[in-house]
C-alpha cells in the first residue's frame, strides 16, 4: 500500500487560521477524481469548498462535522485502492456513522427485494425499505399507504404508515420519483431493511402490483442486507449463515451488523453485553461469536418453561415488548424505599402556574438529582456505569385501546416548567394515539409511574435495564402520598435513595423554594416599614425604587451621605472618567493614520480629578433627590440585625464625605426599625490576600492601594505594579499606561479574566502586551511587598521559578472583592452565609423567607447591572410577581482598549451545560470601519444552540464593544434565533453588520451539515 495522501484544511483566505467542517460531500470509500469537491468548510469569511486534485478513494479518519481544524491539519485521507479505505475509528464523525449511512447498508437498501414473489422492477431508482424506528424494532406491519402507486413523490413525503413494536409511525422518503410496485400489502409484516415499494424515474416505468407476502423473501432481504454489511471495508466478514432468523435487537447507542444480530439471536446473546471491534464501534459477527450469552433477556429464555393450560393467543407487539422488558428486569438487583410526601402545596402551586402536577413532580425529581446525580445513571454490562447529566424522565400514559406508552420528557434538569408543560401536553396527546416518534419514547434516564389518581394506597414499580430507579406514586392521604423508589443496587445504595427522597420531599412540600412566589412576601404585622433595604448601591437603589413605585413603604439604609455605593463613588463611574481621559490620549495616537497632525497630549491631573469628583457629586445628589421624590425614606447609618424583623441603624460613623467608605465608631448610637421584609445589598469591598507586606502597606503613607483608595492619588504615578488580572486590575493597569506610567501586571493564575471566553482573554493578553509601557505576567508567585508610597518593592517568582524584584511608586491590588458580613449580625436574623457570601436563590431569597440578598454580597458576577437586576428580581418576588435572575443571560464589559465584552454562554460553558452548541467567529480586521479607524484588534463570536438555532452567547474583543454588546444582549435575552438576526437589516457601514453576517454564516453551516447528516 502506498502512503495515503492527507487532505488538509486549506487556507482559503489571507486571514484564515482554522476552518469548521460543514459537510462531507463524499462518503468514505467513494472514488475521488481530480477536482472533486470532497467537503465544505467554513472560514472566517464564508462557507467554501474543499477540492482535491488527486485521484484515489476517500478514507477515514474523517474530521467530524462541526469540528474546528487548523489550517494545514488533516481533514481526511486519500488512499490508492478501495481495499485500503478505513472508516476512521479515531474520528468522531466516522464513529458516529449510522448503519444506514455506511456504504454497505445504503447499497443493501437499494438492492433488497420486495417481500413478495415479484422481483424489484428493473427501472427502480430507489427501494423504499422498512425503516428501523426503534431500538428494538426488527420488523413492522404496513398500516396504510398514504400515496397511491404512480404518485409523484418529493423529498420528505410520507408514503406509508407502519406499526412498530411501540407505535404507528410515518415512513418518509428522501428521494424523488414515482411510487412503483410491487408494494407490500397493508397488514403485511416486513422485516427492517426489507423492501416496501420502489421509486422509478418516470410514470411509464411504474409497476402497479402488490407483493405477495412470503417469509422466504423476507429472509432473503435480511440476508441481502447482511451480505452487503460484510462488504463494509475493514469489518471482518463472518462465515456463518444467519438466514431464517429474526435479528436480535440493536444494542443501545451502538451499531451491530445484521450478521452479528442474526448470530446473537441464534446464540441468545444480548448485544448490549458485547464489546465491539468493528469500525465506528459497530459490533461484528466475530464479536458475537466470542461473547458469552448474557444473563438478562436472552438468558431468560433458559428459564424453566412451565406448561400452562389453555389456548394462548400470540402477544401483540406492544405486549411482547413489555414482556421482554419485564423479563430483562430480572437481571437487576433492586430494592425499594418508601417515604410519604404531602402534595397539597405542590398541587396548589402547579395550579397557580397552569402546570400539570405530573410535570411539576418530574421537575422536582430532576432538581433533587443535582445533589444525587447517580439516581440518573445506569448500569451497563459488563461492570460499567453510564453517568448522565441530562435528566430525561419517562412517564407512563395509558394508550387509547389499552396498553401503556412511556413518553420521555427531555432535559427536565435545565428547562423551565412552562416549556416542559407544553412539551408534555403534546407528548401525551400523541402517546394516547400511539403516534410518537422513537426518540420520544426511548432512552429515559429515570421513570415515574403515578397511580395516585386511581386511589391505590401503595404500589411499587419495576425498574428495567437502562435506568437506575423508577418512582411509584400512590394516592395522597393525610400523612401524604407514598413515594416508592425501586432502585438498582449496582448504581445507588439505600442511603442514596433515602437522602434523595428526603430532598425530593423538601422540594415538593415547599414548592415556593423553586417554583416562585404564590403571593406577596411581606409578612402580616405592624411594621415601621414594609421593606428595609440595607445598602444604597445600584442593587439597593433599584430594589427600593421598584418597591416604592408599587406603593410599598420603604427605607433605604446606607452608611454614606449620598446613595450610589461603590459603583458611583469608587468603581464604575470614577474608573470610566479616568478611562475617558485615557481614551482621548490613545485616540490621538491614531490621528496620523488619517492624516491629521496634532501635538503631544498632556494630562492635567488636577483638572481630570476635579471633573471626576464633580460628576460623582452631581450624580449622587441627583440620585438622592430621585429617591426622596419617589418617597423612599433614605436613612444614613450602618444597619445590623437585631432579630428577624428588626434592624438597628448605627449612626456613630456618619460623616459628610461621600467619596470614601464610612467607618463605624466604637460606641454605637442610633435607632431600631422594624420591617416586614428586608433586602441585604451591602456590596463587597476589595479583598487583599495575605501576601506578606500587603495588608501592612494599606495604611496611610503605605505604598499599597486598592480600588477604595486609589482615588486619593494626588498626582499620576510614573511607575506601578498592579496585582491581579481581573477586570479592575486590567482596567487600572492600562489606564495608567495610557497616562504615561510604566506598568507591570502580575497575575497568579495562568490566564487573565477568568469570567471571559478563553480565546478572547488570550487575544486581549497579547494586545495588552503590545502596549508600549505595559507588561502582563501570568503564573507568578508574589513573595513580598515592602517600602512606603513612592518607593515600594515587590518580590515575585516568574513561571519558571526565577526571582525578580521591581521597584515602583505604588502597588494597586486588583485581587478581587469579598463581602464583609461580620458587622451585619446575620445570625440574629437566622440568615445563612457560606464562604463570606450570603446564599440566595435565583429569586434572591435567602434561607429566611422574608429576607432577601442581592448584588455583590451574594457573589457570582460582581457587576453593577447584575446588582441592579437582582434588586428588581427581589422587588418583584416581594410583590408576589414571578421573576428570576438568569446568570446565563447576564453580561459584562471589561473597559480596556479594545474592550472585552460578553453576554450569555461561551461554547465551553454551553457544552458543560449539556447544550449541543456551535460557534462562529470573525476577526475585526476584516471590517471596513475597523480598518478606517485603525481599530483592527479582536474578534466577535456568536454561540448558538444547534437544535433551536437560538443565540445563547456573544463574545467580543473590539473597540466600541461596550456599545456593540447592547445588540448582543437583546439577541440573548430575547432568545433570538440565527435566522432572526441574519434577516435583520443592519446599517452600513457599521460593525453591527458583522452580527448579521455571522448569524447568516452559522445558520447556513448548520443547515448544510443537517442536510448532509440526513442524507
Ligand atoms: C474600580 C472598579 C470599577 C468597576 N467598574 C465596573 C463597571 O465598569 N461595570 C460594572 O458593572 N461594575 C463595575 N464595578 C463593580 C460595581 O461597582 C459593583 O459590582 C457594584 O457597585 C455592586 O453593587 P451593590 O449594590 O451590590 O453594592 P455596592 O455598590 O457596594 O453598594 C453597597 C452599599 O452599601 C453600603 N453598606 C455596606 N454595609 C452596610 C451596612 N451594614 N449598612 C448600611 N450600608 C452599608 C456600602 O457602603 C455601599 O454604599 C467596578 C468596581 C470597581 C471597584
Q: Nutshell version of this structure?
A:
The protein has 26 helices and 50 strands. The strands form 13 sheets. Strands 29, 30, 31, 32, 33, 34 and 45 form a seven-stranded mixed sheet that branches. Helix 2 packs antiparallel against helix 3, helix 9 (357-368) packs across helix 12 and helix 16 (572-588) packs across helix 18 (727-738).
Write down the overall geometry.
Answer: globular
Task: Count up the helices.
Answer: 26
Structural class: alpha+beta
Helix proportion: 25-40%
Bound molecules: flavin-adenine dinucleotide
Mean of pLDDT: 87
Distance between the termini: 31 Å
Rg value: 34 Å
User: How is the main sheet built?
Assistant: 7 strands, mixed
Low-confidence stretches: 89-118, 214-244, 294-301
Q: What is the total tally of β strands? A: 50
Strand fraction equals: 15-25%
Characterise the protein shown here.
It is a single chain. This protein is an alpha+beta fold and 1015 residues long. 27% of the residues lie in helices and 24% in strands. It contains 26 helices and 50 strands. The strands form 13 sheets. Strands 29, 30, 31, 32, 33, 34 and 45 form a 7-stranded mixed sheet that branches. Helix 2 (103-111) runs antiparallel to helix 3 (215-229), helix 9 (357-368) crosses helix 12 (494-509) and helix 16 (572-588) packs across helix 18. The longest helix is centred in the middle third of the chain and has 25 residues, at 605-629. The radius of gyration is 34 Å and the shape is globular. The two termini are 31 Å apart. Flavin-adenine dinucleotide binds next to helix 14, strand 30, helix 15, helix 16 and strand 32.
Amino acid at each position: 500500500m502506498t502512503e495515503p495522501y492527507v487532505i488538509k484544511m486549506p487556507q482559503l483566505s489571507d486571514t484564515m487560521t482554522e476552518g469548521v467542517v460543514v459537510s462531507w460531500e463524499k462518503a468514505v470509500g467513494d472514488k475521488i477524481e481530480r477536482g472533486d469537491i470532497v467537503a465544505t468548510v467554513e472560514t472566517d469569511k464564508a462557507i467554501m469548498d474543499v477540492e482535491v486534485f488527486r485521484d484515489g478513494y476517500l478514507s477515514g479518519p474523517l474530521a467530524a462535522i462541526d469540528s474546528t481544524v487548523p489550517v494545514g491539519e488533516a481533514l481526511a485521507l486519500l488512499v490508492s485502492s478501495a481495499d485500503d479505505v478505513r472508516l476512521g475509528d479515531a474520528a468522531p464523525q466516522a464513529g458516529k456513522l449510522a448503519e444506514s449511512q455506511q456504504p454497505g447498508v445504503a447499497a443493501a437498501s437499494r438492492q433488497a427485494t420486495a417481500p413478495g414473489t415479484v422481483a424489484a422492477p428493473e427501472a427502480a431508482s430507489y427501494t423504499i425499505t422498512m425503516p428501523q424506528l426503534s431500538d428494538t424494532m426488527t420488523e413492522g406491519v404496513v398500516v396504510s399507504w398514504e400515496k397511491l402507486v404512480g404518485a409523484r413523490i418529493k423529498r420528505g413525503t410520507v408514503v406509508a404508515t407502519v406499526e412498530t413494536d411501540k407505535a404507528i409511525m410515518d415512513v418518509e422518503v428522501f428521494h424523488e420519483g414515482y411510487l412503483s410496485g410491487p408494494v407490500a400489502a397493508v397488514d403485511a409484516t416486513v422485516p427492517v431493511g426489507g423492501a416496501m415499494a420502489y421509486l422509478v424515474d418516470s410514470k411509464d416505468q411504474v409497476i402497479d402490483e402488490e407483493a405477495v407476502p412470503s417469509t422466504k423473501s423476507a429472509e432473503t432481504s435480511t440476508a441481502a442486507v447482511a451480505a452487503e454489511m460484510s462488504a463494509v471495508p475493514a469489518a471482518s466478514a463472518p462465515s456463518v449463515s444467519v438466514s431464517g432468523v429474526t435479528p436480535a435487537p440493536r444494542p443501545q447507542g451502538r451499531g451491530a451488523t445484521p450478521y452479528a444480530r442474526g448470530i446473537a439471536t441464534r446464540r441468545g446473546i444480548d448485544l448490549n453485553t458485547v464489546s465491539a471491534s468493528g469500525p465506528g464501534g459497530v459490533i461484528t459477527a466475530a464479536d458475537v461469536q466470542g461473547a458469552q450469552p448474557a444473563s438478562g433477556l436472552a438468558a431468560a429464555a433458559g428459564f424453566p418453561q412451565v406448561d400452562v393450560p389453555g389456548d394462548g393467543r400470540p402477544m401483540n407487539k406492544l405486549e411482547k415488548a413489555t414482556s421482554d422488558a419485564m423479563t430483562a428486569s430480572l437481571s437487576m438487583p433492586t430494592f425499594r424505599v418508601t417515604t410519604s410526601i404531602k402534595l397539597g402545596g405542590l398541587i396548589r402551586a402547579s395550579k397557580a402556574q397552569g402546570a400539570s402536577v405530573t410535570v411539576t413532580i418530574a421537575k422536582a425529581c430532576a432538581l433533587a438529582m443535582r445533589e444525587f446525580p447517580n439516581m440518573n445513571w445506569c448500569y451497563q454490562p459488563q461492570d460499567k456505569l453510564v453517568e448522565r447529566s441530562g435528566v430525561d424522565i419517562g412517564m407512563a400514559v395509558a394508550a387509547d385501546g389499552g396498553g401503556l406508552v412511556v413518553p420521555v420528557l427531555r432535559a427536565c434538569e435545565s428547562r423551565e416548567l412552562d416549556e416542559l408543560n407544553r412539551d408534555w401536553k403534546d407528548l401525551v396527546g400523541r402517546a394516547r394515539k400511539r403516534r410518537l416518534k422513537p426518540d420520544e419514547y426511548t432512552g429515559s434516564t429515570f421513570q415515574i409511574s403515578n397511580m395516585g389518581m386511581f386511589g391505590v394506597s401503595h404500589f411499587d414499580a419495576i425498574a428495567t435495564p437502562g435506568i437506575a430507579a423508577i418512582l411509584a406514586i400512590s394516592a395522597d392521604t393525610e400523612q401524604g402520598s407514598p413515594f416508592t423508589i425501586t432502585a438498582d443496587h449496582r448504581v445507588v445504595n439505600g442511603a442514596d435513595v433515602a437522602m434523595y427522597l428526603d430532598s425530593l420531599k423538601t422540594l415538593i412540600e415547599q414548592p415556593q423554594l423553586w417554583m416562585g412566589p404564590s403571593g406577596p412576601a411581606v409578612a402580616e404585622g405592624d411594621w415601621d416599614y414594609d421593606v428595609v433595604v440595607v445598602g444604597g448601591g445600584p442593587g439597593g437603589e433599584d430594589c427600593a425604587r421598584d418597591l416604592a413605585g408599587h406603593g410599598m413603604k420603604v427605607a433605604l439604609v446606607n452608611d454614606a451621605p449620598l446613595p450610589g455605593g461603590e459603583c458611583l463613588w469608587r468603581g464604575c463611574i470614577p474608573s470610566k472618567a479616568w478611562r475617558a481621559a485615557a481614551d482621548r490620549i490613545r485616540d490621538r495616537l491614531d490621528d496620523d493614520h488619517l492624516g491629521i497632525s496634532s501635538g503631544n497630549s498632556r494630562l492635567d491631573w488636577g483638572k481630570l480629578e476635579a471633573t471626576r469628583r464633580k460628576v460623582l457629586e452631581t450624580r449622587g445628589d441627583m440620585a438622592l433627590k430621585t429617591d426622596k421624590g419617589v418617597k423612599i425614606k433614605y436613612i444614613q447609618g450602618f444597619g445590623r440585625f437585631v432579630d428577624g424583623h428588626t434592624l438597628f441603624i448605627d449612626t456613630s460613623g456618619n460623616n459628610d464625605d461621600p467619596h470614601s467608605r464610612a467607618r463605624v465608631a466604637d460606641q454605637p448610637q442610633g435607632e431600631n426599625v422594624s420591617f416586614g421584609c428586608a433586602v441585604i445589598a451591602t456590596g463587597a469591598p476589595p479583598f487583599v490576600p495575605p501576601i506578606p507586606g500587603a495588608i501592612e502597606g494599606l495604611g496611610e503613607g503605605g505604598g499599597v492601594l486598592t480600588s477604595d483608595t486609589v482615588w486619593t492619588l494626588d498626582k499620576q504615578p510614573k511607575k506601578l505594579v498592579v496585582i491581579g488580572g481581573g477586570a479592575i486590575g486590567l482596567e487600572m493597569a492600562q489606564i495608567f499606561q495610557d497616562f504615561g506610567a510604566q506598568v507591570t501586571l502580575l497575575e497568579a493564575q495562568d490566564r487573565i479574566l477568568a469570567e471571559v471566553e478563553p480565546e478572547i482573554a488570550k487575544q486581549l493578553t497579547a494586545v495588552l502586551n503590545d502596549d508600549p509601557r505595559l507588561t502582563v505576567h501570568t503564573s507568578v508567585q508574589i513573595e513580598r511587598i515592602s517600602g512606603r508610597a513612592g518607593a515600594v518593592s515587590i518580590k515575585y517568582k516568574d513561571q519558571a521559578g526565577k526571582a525578580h524584584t521591581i521597584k515602583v511608586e505604588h502597588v494597586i491590588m486588583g485581587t478581587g472583592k469579598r463581602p464583609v458580613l461580620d458587622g451585619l449580625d446575620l445570625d440574629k436574623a437566622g440568615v445563612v452565609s457560606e464562604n463570606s457570601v450570603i446564599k440566595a436563590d435565583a429569586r434572591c431569597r435567602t434561607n429566611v423567607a422574608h429576607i432577601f440578598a442581592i448584588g455583590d454580597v451574594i457573589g457570582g458576577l460582581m457587576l453593577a447591572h447584575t446588582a441592579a437586576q437582582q434588586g428588581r428580581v427581589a422587588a418583584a418576588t416581594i410583590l408576589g410577581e414571578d421573576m428570576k435572575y438568569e446568570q446565563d443571560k447576564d453580561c459584562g464589559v471589561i473597559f480596556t482598549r479594545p474592550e472585552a465584552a460578553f453576554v450569555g454562554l461561551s461554547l465551553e460553558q454551553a457544552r458543560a451545560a449539556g447544550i449541543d452548541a456551535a460557534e462562529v467567529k470573525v476577526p475585526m480586521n476584516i471590517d471596513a470601519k475597523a480598518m478606517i479607524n485603525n481599530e483592527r484588534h479582536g474578534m466577535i463570536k456568536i454561540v448558538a444552540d444547534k437544535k433551536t438555532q437560538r443565540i445563547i452567547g456573544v463574545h467580543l474583543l473590539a473597540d466600541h464593544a461596550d456599545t456593540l454588546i447592547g445588540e448582543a444582549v437583546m439577541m440573548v435575552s430575547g432568545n433570538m434565533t440565527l435566522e432572526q438576526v441574519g434577516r435583520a437589516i443592519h446599517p452600513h457601514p457599521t460593525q453591527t453588520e458583522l452580527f448579521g453576517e455571522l448569524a447568516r454564516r452559522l445558520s447556513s453551516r448548520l443547515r448544510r451539515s443537517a442536510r448532509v447528516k440526513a442524507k
